[in-house]
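Example S7 (structure tokens).
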């Protein structure tokens, strides 16, 4: 028994399943970012938390606005590569910040700096305040990551890296860090840009991708249905095909009447 439409059916089913699964995944990603945006709005509406002592660290939830008083560890700037802004290539500048009345150090994302397009390893002169300063920012659980190929080099001052973990900084500097990072928002005359991505950044793009995957699944199903309708034949068409096949299968002397021969004349 033959199943001439089995392969198209299986192909259509696979395309529909893949399209729906990927569409659901993109929808979930959009919902996650929208939920983060909601949490950010809730936390940033709270009063600014002062983290000058260890007792206040318990209240440092993600997206909470906090104040720090201490000084930057000027010898340890680190640059995160491939962080574009407004279409321009650049770095995120990170630096440890030692709290004045605590043994804790907080890793601060100070801002964005433009990258030299002619010489990748060349960075702009970094202006860092001397002595004790007060800064304000937003608590983040971790540093944003980007795709990284190969094994990174050992961390050192003024290193240009693709990604960075707090544990790496702790091992390299010998300082004790809090388990969160700070996105600095207060202005300091250092020439850095502090236009940080919002938590909901990319949610619309995820929904657009989801729509494309759902549309792919829908088009695959519609194509299968319409192609099946066009391939269906009426009973008269099927009977005509059967008659033609039967006629062609007969012996030549029975199946091919001599259409071109003249009719016999009657005998008188």
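Recovered sequence:
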């Amino acid at each position: 028994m033959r199943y001439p439409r089995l392969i198209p059916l299986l192909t259509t089913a696979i395309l529909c399943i893949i399209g729906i699964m990927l569409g659901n995944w993109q929808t979930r990603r959009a919902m996650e970012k929208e939920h983060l945006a909601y949490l950010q709005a809730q936390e940033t509406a709270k009063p600014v938390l002062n983290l000058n002592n260890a007792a206040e660290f318990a209240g440092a939830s993600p997206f909470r606005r906090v104040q720090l008083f201490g000084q930057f560890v000027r010898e340890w700037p680190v640059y995160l590569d491939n962080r574009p802004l407004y279409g321009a290539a650049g770095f995120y500048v990170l630096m440890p910040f030692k709290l004045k009345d605590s043994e804790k150090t907080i890793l601060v994302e100070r801002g964005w700096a433009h990258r030299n397009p002619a010489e990748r390893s060349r960075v702009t002169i970094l202006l860092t305040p001397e002595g004790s300063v007060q800064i304000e920012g937003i608590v983040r659980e971790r540093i944003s990551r980007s795709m990284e190929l190969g094994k990174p080099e050992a961390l050192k001052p003024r290193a240009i890296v693709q990604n960075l973990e707090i544990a790496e900084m702790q091992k390299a500097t010998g300082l004790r860090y809090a388990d969160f990072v700070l996105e600095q928002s207060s202005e300091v005359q250092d020439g850095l840009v502090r236009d940080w991505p919002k938590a909901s950044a990319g949610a619309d793009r995820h929904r657009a991708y989801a729509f494309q995957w759902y549309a792919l699944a829908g088009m695959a199903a519609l194509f299968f249905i319409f192609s099946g309708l066009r391939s269906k034949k009426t009973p008269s068409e099927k009977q005509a095909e059967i008659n033609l096949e039967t006629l062609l299968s007969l012996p030549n002397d029975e199946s091919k009447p001599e259409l071109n021969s003249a009719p016999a004349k009657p005998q008188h």
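Notes on this example. Residues 6-44 form the longest helix (39 residues).
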